[in-house]
């Protein structure tokens, strides 16, 4: 269905581009984006109607893809995430960020994002991750008139290529040992022989995926890319690829050496809690914030606990709402840093809209873990699972570095609080306001139906 959306959008965009050369065509791009948004909404509904496939351990294409209880909720989460982020470019903004091929590239990227958690073969893993990565490289550099955007795209391409070499190298070593690239065969081999050499080969694969995710200590490139890229592109690339890769790791966590994940967890939370204390660039701060939260998500991957779903769900909602607030606030910038990133520093967070400022403050409070925001419940269930598995030191480390990270969140909240004293208020785009209001309702009432979500997750995993 998503592939059909790619074909339809490609043909429509091509005809639309040909006809726009003979007419004004000012709103043609927005019409294309709205058509694609409607189609993706239908894809989401179709995926929901196919829920029963998870009961039969359904496999397709010579056992290359596997659908089960673990990866189906992750696929739904990723579709909803992408649709929520893409709604922003369906309406005209003050600083125009539209491109006629943007939506098509994002749908192609969505194909890789959806398929990645279901991959059951190492060769296909490489193909799908390259489908996802190459579309992200092009999306990052789609606004090529900006020097920083081109710089970010080239840096992303070079570092992604190095990580891809690691994936191929690990696949070669694993095939040399097991004699198969099928992950089910690798799991069976590991259950019988438990070879240390296999552990080393799988460690190379996990390190390559961590490199692509931008977790510490392999994170410096990601901070630079997120800083150079336009704000809208940063909001997209900083979460979509990470969610799909980490979801695959969670689905196949029985193959992963837990000591390696623990090492990456400690390095990530230390770097992400300490480094932003000396920053004034809020895009850099949010990049470290993403590293901190995905460091927390490595713990449920180690324990194979359903708290992963709770934390991932609340973080996706918080991330989308936070970047929509930042993008909406671009309307009020009088001296933009550039057309692609009007706001860069924390002192530019001046919004003559009190509700918008309060929404962004709620997002930061959620990232801090202040009750009753969704971020509190996400961290609570992760820590509860850690105590259940007797990971006391990791739970204490999570609390300690969360408190340390509170400082730079509070620094941004302090700047936003100055907007609440403004005597006037300016409205934002009505379409963006509608999406933000829907997310805000979910955000504020999360604690009401949180237990229903837990029941649904328990039923799906039982």
Automatic annotation (TrEMBL):
Catalytic activity as recorded in UniProt: a ubiquinone + NADH + 5 H(+)(in) = a ubiquinol + NAD(+) + 4 H(+)(out)
Any idea of its EC number? 7.1.1.2
Instruction: Identify the main location.
Output: membrane
Where in or outside the cell it occurs: the entry states: Membrane
> Is Transmembrane included in the keywords of this UniProt record?
yes
Among InterPro entries, the record links this protein to: ND/Mrp_TM
Q: What are the record keywords, sorted?
A: Membrane, Mitochondrion, Transmembrane, Transmembrane helix
Q: GO cellular component annotations, sorted alphabetically?
A: membrane
Q: Name one Pfam family in it.
A: Proton_antipo_M
Q: Which GO terms describe its molecular function?
A: NADH dehydrogenase (ubiquinone) activity
Instruction: Give the way it sits in the membrane.
Output: Multi-pass membrane protein
Residue ranges of every copy of the NADH:quinone oxidoreductase/Mrp antiporter transmembrane domain listed in the record: 120-403
Ranges that cross the membrane: 72-91, 100-117, 154-175, 256-274, 286-302, 308-328, 349-371, 391-411, 432-454
Membership in a protein family: Belongs to the complex I subunit 2 family.
| Name assigned to this protein | NADH-ubiquinone oxidoreductase chain 2
Native organism: Candida jiufengensis
